[in-house]
Amino acid sequence: MKIPNFSFLPLLVCIVAAVLTGAAARGHDQPLANIAIHLARIALDNSAYIKASPYVLGEKGDDTDWVTVEYFSPNATTNDWIAVFSPANFNSSTCPAVNVEGQDPDICTSPIKYQFANYSSGYLSTGKGLVKFQLINQRSDFSFALLTGGLSKPSLIAVSNTIAFKNPKAPVYPRLAQGKEWNEMTVTWTSGYDISEAYPFVEWGMLWGPSTRTPAGTITFNRGSMCGEPARTVGWRDPGFIHTSFLKDLWPNKQYYYKVGHELLNGTIVYGKAYTFKASPFPGQNSLQRVIIFGDMGKAERDESNEYSNYQPGSLNTTDTLVKDLDNIDIIFHIGDIVYANGYISQWDQFTAQVEPLTAKVPYMMASGNHERDWPNTGSFYAGFDSGGECGVLLESMYYVPTENRANYWYQTDYGMFRFCVADTEHDWREGTEQYKFIEKCLSTVDRKQQPWLIFIAHRVLGYSSGYFYANEGSFAEPMGRESLQQLWQKYRVDIAFYGHVHNYERTCPIYENQCVSTEKSHYSGTMNGTIHAVVGGGGSHIAAFSNSTPAWSIYRDLDYGFVKLTAFNHSSLLFEYKKSSDGNVYDSFTIDRDYRDVLACVVDSCPPKTLAN
């Protein structure tokens, strides 16, 4: 059994305890932050052991596999736990040198997941235990550690053998996204192959037709790209290489097949799995078009690893319910607070694996949230610590969206009869800013004859929410949100505005300047004179309470996990459905039926200039 080398080299401390304390205080957003890994000490016990099998994972080409871990401690306690480390060598020789005074750490990298040892029945009485972990291919090997002392004062008493996937560098977890043109699809994936050792490409073609190859670009980032702790310290993990290919000149609604691959320098080709997708409809095309929108999902663990067992309970339900209905979904928008990695980089890989059944089949469009972007003195509009030092780098690198500059994560995308204007609430959106100009251009340049359904998307609530923290502020939205943008929504007749950030579901009446402009609740027709606002932040993260009183503009509120599905039947008929993640059933809905003239009709603050008739 090969055990990682624990010949500890004199090193400077690689993390400041105060920073870890702050991270732990935010542990409800990232449970790995509750581990005081900077305090871990080595106390190897020759009578304790831990071993993992099988030694080689993914023998059949799978990107995930189950591992059986057996262990024994002569002094079993409820504070014993099993940690998974990757790379397998996690001793202090891997610590970066940081010029900070303090005690040199024995371990300075966080595990990627863990379970408590007493999850195995009989452990406390016999000292023996057996648990199973589900691992994904993350470009490196794995080892398991048996620790005691709980999460606050961990002591390492045994280390397992090393295990690894058959090909740790294999291309995995493709992510589709709309390109900058309607007839372009982008494919992004992750691998362990740098361009110096393999050429990345996508092999693709029309279903049942000949194939072609399109090359991919390759990017990565390093520890220095991170803006703060824990992303620069205990949360850091090498992201591998991220590849993006642009498949162009697609035929509208045509089915295509594809698989990602790498041609090694010796001519050998390593392929990923094969998938299919449907190309986007032509802008204005009259066909059935189905859209999913939600925010704040995060990730969860199918092996019940403790780091997420009591957090994000809706995440897997949302993922699995969407997968079951995937044949009836054309495009997905995940509108911020994507992973809740909060500086623990390994969690991004685990999220991409969780949503792969979705992202490999339909465009999966992102919006930026506070847990992706916010960090002080880095250009974000809010000076919070919610990104854990990622400062947008992970989202901007791992998921393509058709922005002009990925650092400014706002963009527009057309899908048939829909125009989507996606804002970035972590950058200034107020009048006079670059983003405000983008929003107005996106809203004003759509041809409503051809694309009648105009949708605004943002992470933070710029419209209306009776979530308790907004209600306590008295703003019922992000301060300065409505006052900057409501005239644009009204002027350009935005149908529906979607938000995340508040972890529940809420729908308003059609509204302008805090006043409902319709008494209808389930069917809207005729002149369009206000925007409906929907909070869809119940993708999977912990549920957030509403205010005690319900505002007059709030039509439906739900404290549960769910998502919205929009179905455009034609240029005049749209169906809105709120579905719960637990069962996929509809709990709130409405329809819109109207003609082009209803968008043109003169209403308050949206009236084209008139000329005298001849």
UniProtKB/TrEMBL annotation:
Q: What is its main location?
A: secreted
**Any one of the GO CC terms:** extracellular region
Indicate yes or no for the key word Secreted.
yes
Swiss-Prot/TrEMBL keywords: Glycoprotein, Hydrolase, Secreted, Signal
Q: Which residues form the Purple acid phosphatase Fn3-like domain?
A: 50-167
Q: InterPro entries from the xrefs?
A: Calcineurin-like_PHP, Fn3_PAP, Metallo-depent_PP-like, MPP_PAP, PAPs_C, PAPs_N, Purple_acid_Pase-like_N
Catalytic activity from the UniProt record: a phosphate monoester + H2O = an alcohol + phosphate
In short, the EC number is 3.1.3.2
Q: What GO molecular function terms would the record report?
A: acid phosphatase activity; metal ion binding
Matching SUPFAM superfamilies: Metallo-dependent phosphatases, Purple acid phosphatase, N-terminal domain
Ranges for domain Calcineurin-like phosphoesterase come to: 290-505
The Purple acid phosphatase C-terminal domain sits at: 530-589
Origin, by domain of life? Eukaryota
Q: Where in the cell is it found?
A: Secreted
Class of enzymatic activity (EC top level) = hydrolase
The residues forming the signal peptide are: 1-25
Q: Which segments constitute the Purple acid phosphatase N-terminal domain?
A: 174-278
The Swiss-Prot or TrEMBL record describes its family as follows: Belongs to the metallophosphoesterase superfamily. Purple acid phosphatase family.
Quaternary structure, per UniProt, is: Homodimer.
Could you identify this protein by its name?
Purple acid phosphatase
Q: Which organism is it from?
A: Rhynchospora pubera
